[in-house]
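Technical note accompanying the year-one report. For the benefit of new consortium partners, we illustrate the data format agreed upon in the data management plan: each record pairs a sequence with a structure-token string. No post-processing was applied to the example shown here.
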Amino acid sequence: MKIKTLIAAGGLGKRLQGFRGNESTKVLLEVKKTPMINLQIQKLIEWGLDDFVIITNPQYDQLIKDVTSSIQGISIDYVIQNEPKGISHAFLQAENKVSEDEAIVCVLGDNFFGENLLNNVNFENFVQNQKSLIFTKEVNNPEEFGVASIGQDQKVIEIIEKPKNPASNLAVVGVYIFDYSMFNKIKTLKPSKRGELEITDLINIYIDKSCCEHIQLNSWWVDAGTPERIIELENNLI
């Protein structure tokens, strides 16, 4: 089964501006003396992935290319998200880099994990049946994340982005598996109140068709978007 991995790396990460002298985009911030984007790719290679598309932004596209081009033994392509119109919009930019028969692993460039999430994934199932797979983690502050409600059959009932009254404490983490139909589904999305095409809304299309499954994480997850979480990530990587 061919697998294409899309890494959303276009976010500027304003909360990390100035941290450790970082004046560029957050994926170039050094974590354990390695640029975050390179660390991400190294971790995904350990998961068995070797064919990547990195979604960048116009300002730092060349810098990201320069930094990642040193990684050997894999295929890396690049596309630019010209405007920050949301995560689903970012992944849509890679449509022409993906074949219809490929499974698609979508990753947020600043999300890191203490386990290989793909160990028990049947990729052919998701491609043949036009399904999606999300991963969740129990958290103490679910109101800060997209929150999943799970049925007794482990099918996902609903995802709500940053709910005031969370239905569960299962946060949706930044790795998703889709089939090629994700691109046409994204094209049907309408911008949210903040003017973005949300990843939550894409997943909810699969949920409405009873085509979204879920795996709960056992080990750590860090969404490395703040200085505190960069330090947490480094502590986990020891």
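Partners are asked to follow this layout when depositing records. Residues 152 and 195 are 34 Å apart (CA to CA).
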